[in-house]
């Protein structure tokens, strides 16, 4: 831990030395390159999404489409698409990655968030991450559950270990799901492709931070219950799930401020709470750093 803190401290001094827009732009590029390298890069080709609509739920002021798309060939993503029935088209859109929950997009918490957004005039796309919801990787019909355990984190860890052996991270696949989900939103006639944001909580906050760093089409980002700093995280609950950790991450000094820095000067909401897995004290520190950078 002491070695990690020293490495993080050295990087923090580099961030503190940023004093001009030009320096910040260069740092943005370094943050993006570092994240890409740590996850093992991204696919170079975008294949057909092969969108399937499997059902529709009609309500007075909105519609929910049950859909499936392929982020890569035969790599299926199950999702719900919320579309307003009232207001001026095309609508702005929000991609909502979900957090760690076996129910994923079907969890009442995420449905409530999506309903709030669609009733406010946004098209919303929310989907099941790998190992969650309808995308359980190790599902056993006899057990009617995952063969490696009921927790979504165990499924992530199993695939995470396999990914590390191939020199990449499970985050590579989860980020690609999100990028292709943005492709899907941008292709819809109901969506204004110039006004797409990303908002997620917990594990969804993680993917929000990644997508905001790596996809320039994201115009606003809201990362809830994720952004903190590594100094506080190491003293508290420690490392997180497989898609949230990378080899040499701390050696490089890569910290949570790098995610926000990479998105500047576009709107970024850091939403945090007390008694969470990600320390509030770290979120406050990172928010303070971000405000200085955004001021420049």
Give an overview of the whole structure.
This protein has helices at residues 2-16, 21-39, 108-118, 152-165, 170-187, 203-214, 230-235, 257-263, 280-295, and strands spanning 52-58, 62-72, 75-84, 91-97, 123-127, 139-140, 145-146, 191-201, 218-224, 268-271. 40% of the residues lie in helices and 22% in strands. The chain has nine helices and ten strands. Strand 1 (52-58) and strand 2 form a beta hairpin. Helix 2 crosses helix 8 and helix 6 crosses helix 8. The radius of gyration is 19 Å and the shape is globular. The protein has 296 residues and is an alpha/beta fold. The longest helix is centred in the N-terminal third of the chain and has 19 residues, at 21-39. It has an eight-stranded mixed beta sheet. The protein has a two-stranded antiparallel sheet with strand order 6-7.
Radius of gyration: 19 Å
How many helical elements? Answer: 9
Question: Quick one: overall form?
Answer: globular
Parts with pLDDT < 50 across at least 5 consecutive residues: none
Number of strands: 10
Strand sequence of the main sheet, in spatial order? Answer: 1-2-3-5-4-8-9-10
* N- and C-termini, Cα separation: 32 Å
Please tell me the overall pLDDT: 94
Helix/sheet category? alpha/beta
Helix content: 25-40%
The succession of helices and strands, N to C, reads HHEEEEHEEEHHEHEHHEH
Largest β sheet strand count, sense and barrel closure:
8 strands, mixed
């Amino acid at each position: 831990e002491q070695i990690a803190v020293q490495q993080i401290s050295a990087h923090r001094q580099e961030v503190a030395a940023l004093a001009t827009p030009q320096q910040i732009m260069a740092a943005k590029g370094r943050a993006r390159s570092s994240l890409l390298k740590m996850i093992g890069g991204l696919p170079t080709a975008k294949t057909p999404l092969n969108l399937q609509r499997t059902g529709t739920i009609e309500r007075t002021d909105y519609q929910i489409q049950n859909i499936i798309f392929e982020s890569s060939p035969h790599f299926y993503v199950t999702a719900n698409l919320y579309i307003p029935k009232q207001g001026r088209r095309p609508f702005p859109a929000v991609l909502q990655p979900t957090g760690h929950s076996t129910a994923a997009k079907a969890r009442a918490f995420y449905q409530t968030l999506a309903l709030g957004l669609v009733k406010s005039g946004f098209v919303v796309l929310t989907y099941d991450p790998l190992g969650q919801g309808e995308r359980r990787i190790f599902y056993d019909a006899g057990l009617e559950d995952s063969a490696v355990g009921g927790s979504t984190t165990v499924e992530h860890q199993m695939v995470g270990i396999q990914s590390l052996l191939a020199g990449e991270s499970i985050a590579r696949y989860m980020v690609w799901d999100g990028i292709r989900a943005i492709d899907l939103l941008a292709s819809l006639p109901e969506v204004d492709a110039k006004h797409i944001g990303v908002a997620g909580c917990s594990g969804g906050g993680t993917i929000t931070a990644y997508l905001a760093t790596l996809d320039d089409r994201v115009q606003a980002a809201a990362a809830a219950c994720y952004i903190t700093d590594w100094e506080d995280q190491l003293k508290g609950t420690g490392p997180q799930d497989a898609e949230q950790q990378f080899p040499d991450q701390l050696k490089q000094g890569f910290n949570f401020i790098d995610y926000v820095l990479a998105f500047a000067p576009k709107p970024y909401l850091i939403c945090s709470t007390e008694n969470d897995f990600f320390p509030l004290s770290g979120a406050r520190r990172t928010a303070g750093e971000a405000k200085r950078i955004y001021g420049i």
